[in-house]
Here is the input.
Amino acid sequence: MPLTETDAPPASATLTVRSLLVWGLLAGLIGGLLAFGFASAFGEPSVDAAIAIEEAGAGHSHGDDHATQGEHGHGAEPAEEEVVSRAFQSTGGLGIGAVAYGLGLGGLFSLAFAFAYGRVGSLSPRATSLAVAGLGYLAVVLVPFLTYPANPPAVGNPDTIGDRTGLYFGMIAISLALLVAAVATARALAPRLGGWWSTVVGGVGYAVVVTVIAKLLPSFQEVPDGFPGWLLWEFRIASLGTSAVLWAGIGITFAALLQRGLTRTRVA
Amino acid sequence: MAVAAAIPTALPVPAIPVRQILPYAVFAGIISLIALYFVGAEQGALAVFEGTAVHELVHDARHLLGFPCH
Here is the structure.
């Protein structure tokens, strides 16, 4: 049935980067709002609990001689002027941050989709969207997280923020570049090894190389003594979940908009 | 024909030529990365603007999205 004349795509049923970008931004908006909801419900309790510990002073026991106090405005330091109130940080600020991040990610996602579609196996547009979201989450969120886990307030030495930020972004870049290389390798090997084994080679190759690199990079043990383990766990799971909701929201919304756009064009 | 109908979702839509994607990718990519930078790192390890307003505004999002904050 899909091969009959009415189902054949008319000349207008092509994808343009412009429409992909629009769908990507919309998907990013929705993903950002969903992530905001998830973070409000499941992330904020652990952020608040960590800030309470920080304010109680327990969070700074890792500081030996450097001034670890009052490096940032949680309202922990009465002497420090709070530019944005905690109440707004945990609501409006979280929302603005999540939506701005979602929009940026959604735009980049649509561009990644534009490159991936039709070039990574014979996946349908919707399946490509989910594949890009899944692999993107793996390479941009999960692997960097496993290398440099997210930390709640009160965890982390302000003296190493430069190193940690550089290494975290570096790990995202390395992981993403390795993913692209793995996909390209799998595609190149597919004619010789077949789809199954070329995918296995690409996947295992990515896992091995990224693990070796992650182990070679410096690590940071900056959880202060007395910081509750359950709170660290809760925060980190909430952080992974927030990103998962964001990426899933973008992937699924983008797929739905894509399908709607394509079929509407075909009907018209 | 019945066999072909087993995968109704496969739309034969052509891939977009790389030449068409590139200008959008460069421009929108840069804009998007700036947005991500402001949420992820501004007034942390690096700072375009002075002060802590941006850092504090996106503070919770930065923590929960997994970026090093302080």
